[in-house]
């Protein structure tokens, strides 16, 4: 059984490394990340999903599967996998692009702004509830749960240690070592 020490270890070396990375990240954000117009560069790299639809879908997926611990990169990777599928299927590409437009239209009806521009999470959730019976919503929700949570990098962020069948199952590997579950 592998025992995880979940306490944060902060010493001078780790503090300096973290501080240097934070300064670099702050400089990149304040200097403006590489964007083309108002669209992030990652969205321009998608082949089937249009850049404006990609921005809307990114916010939608973050609202469907909210994790403050996860950066946008994990959600972007999940959307990229859906884009690869849509590149092979024109019907799916149309469903995603038209669905994002429909989501923006629904958001404008409820809040006078495109979906990605709505600041309050509760307002965005209200918009999602208004379209939750559509095939577009079901497709995005169903595909993203697999694409997002099937990333080993996400597993580490959420405390999942991976498959255990080859080690005899979870019973003898500390199945109850997730202390945040006990507190809930």
Please tell me about this protein's structure.
By secondary structure, the chain is an all-alpha fold. 62% of the residues lie in helices and 2% in strands. Strands 1-2 form a two-stranded antiparallel ribbon. Mean pLDDT is 80; it is low at 27-38.
Distance between termini? Answer: 25 Å
Alpha-beta classification: mainly alpha
Largest sheet: 2 strands, antiparallel
Q: How many β-strands, per DSSP? A: 2
Strand order of the largest sheet: 1-2
Please give the count of helices. 9
As residue ranges, the low-confidence spans are 27-38
Short key terms for the protein model shown above:
mainly alpha, two-stranded antiparallel sheet, globular
List the helices and strands and how they pair.
Layout: H1 12-31, E1 35-36, E2 39-40, H2 41-44, H3 51-64, H4 72-88, H5 90-111, H6 121-131, H7 135-149, H8 152-158, H9 179-182
Antiparallel strand pairs: 1-2
Gist of the model:
This protein has about 180 residues and is mainly α. It is built from 9 helices and 2 strands, in the order H-E-E-H-H-H-H-H-H-H-H.
